[in-house]
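ok so I'm stuck.
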Amino acid sequence: MRIALHFKQLIIAFLALSIAFVGVMVAHEAQALTDIDDVGSDSLIRGETFSAVYYMGADGFRYVFPNSNTYFTWYDDFDAVKMISDSDLATIQIGGNVTYRPGSSMIKIQSDPKTYAVAQGGTLRHIDSEEVAVALYGSAWNTHIDDVSDGFFTNYNIGDVVEDADDYSISDEQDASDSINDDKGLEEPELIELTSDGFDPIDVTIDAGQVVQFINTDTEKHSVTADDLSWGSGTMQSDGEYVHRFEEEGTYTFFDSYDSSNTGAIYVE
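replied:
not stuck anymore, here's the structure
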């Protein structure tokens, strides 16, 4: 069962207003710039020029809200959004997209007839029948479905089918994801400093999927570059930062292109 056409038109109109509202609300605070040092994990940020809002993860990356629907599953308004300079925003690398909050609206991919509940970590679980949907979301279950563009489908992964209402708990999913950090399992990165004496420490051991943050604490320029040139920071000014996620096990060696005698290694287990 699908939402009636006239009701969908109302929703589309509401979303258009919501998107415009984002720009108005954030632009209203255009003069109140926040210093980047005051932007921490779990912050909402935007730049000066564009109204796009990002989530600041514990891992040092910023995460994109692909649309207003996704944003409003996590937040009721934009009161907590901090505006930072465009130049500061550009120094924060993008880590990916935010997905729907678990236990919020069901979603449907435009090219897929199935309806999904959202579980932790952007996991989609197919609702097997209308009876299960009614048991979970009530008789008006079909008004709790959002269409998601095919382009955002890759943000999600497919989990087990919800064959019975006992297979999925809305409250448990919400309680397990108080924040986007919780939902994505984001953790503080391992830290390596670039100093006048080289990398400190010169090596770290991490688990696959963890992030390493490099910070230039020297007054001179430095860089961090993989020996195989597969990743690197480029020039890092004093206080410059670079983060990189290491997904696969192995040994990753690197050097400072401003002083090739400065080398280090990351061991991913």
